[in-house]
Amino acid sequence: LRQLLPMLGVALITAFAWERLFAISRRRAPDAGWLMAAWLFVLLLPPVTPLWLVALGMSFGALFGAHVFGGTGCYVASPAVVGAIFLHFSYPSILADSPPWISIAESVASNAPGVLAYVFFLTCAAGAFTLVASGAASARTLLGALFVLLPAVFFSEMLIAAEHVAAGSFAFCWAFLLTDPTTQALTRAARWLHGVVFTLLVVLIRTADPAGPDGVLFAVLLAGLLVPLLDYVVLSIQRSRRGTTLELRR
């Protein structure tokens, strides 16, 4: 806690400052989305992250991940994910030697006797179920990510399906980042595809570079960026079946 609380405090202050600044400039009330973004961002960072990097990454995520698109409800990628990936590429020497908070928790569970690793996944799944029950997340996206896991690992010799679920930060990102309501697809079929693409990217990245860092965070980002395309493809197919044409309006 002596490492987590200062990082969380810096992230919360930074996120609130940017939210307040843009709320004043746009003459609207501050949105509470900054609170969740700060929490998720800190959990994606290693405990050894300097506080100035926490402030820098949170600022980058808030600015270029959320506020340039209009803030909460308008962005195309989670500001927590954008900020964490920015730090990963900008300061790899500082962040590469230590796993993030959430990976530490999962590694402890994985190395413990028994089935604690899968208990950790079930705990995250309970959180995801709560989000689905409250209407904040789509069950189709979550189930799509799990259903495709079995055929996906058929072509992968690195991990079996159960190990993919328990390894790295899959459970956390699947439950709390993939379910970001702002980045969810609009059509039902595209929500299934969103989950499918996420898991396929995870398996592909892990298989292509098993010795490298866990690629779940990159899979979340890439899958989220493909959501508008998935919606467009689904709508195009639906319109073509009805004999009409879908046009993109400027």
Describe this entry's structure for a reader.
With 250 residues, the chain is an all-alpha fold. The protein has 2 domains: 98 residues, no CATH class; 152 residues, no CATH class. Helices cover 68% and strands 0% of the residues. The chain contains 14 helices and no strands. Helix 2 packs parallel to helix 4. The longest helix has 22 residues. The radius of gyration is 19 Å and the shape is globular. It starts with a helix and ends in a 9-residue tail after the last helix.
Q: What's the structural blueprint in terms of helices and strands?
A:
Elements: H1 4-25, H2 33-43, H3 51-65, H4 79-90, H5 92-95, H6 101-111, H7 116-134, H8 139-147, H9 149-154, H10 161-166, H11 170-177, H12 188-208, H13 216-225, H14 227-241
Question: Quick gist of this model?
Answer:
By secondary structure, the chain is an all-alpha fold. It has helices at 4-25, 33-43, 51-65, 79-90, 92-95, 101-111, 116-134, 139-147, 149-154, 161-166, 170-177, 188-208, 216-225, 227-241.
What labels would you give this structure?
14 helices, 2 domains, mainly alpha, 0% strand, 250 residues
Shape: globular
Count of folded domains: 2
Percent range for helical residues? 55-70%
**What's the N-to-C terminus distance?**
49 Å
Query: Rg from C-alpha positions?
Result: 19 Å
Q: What percent strand?
A: under 5%
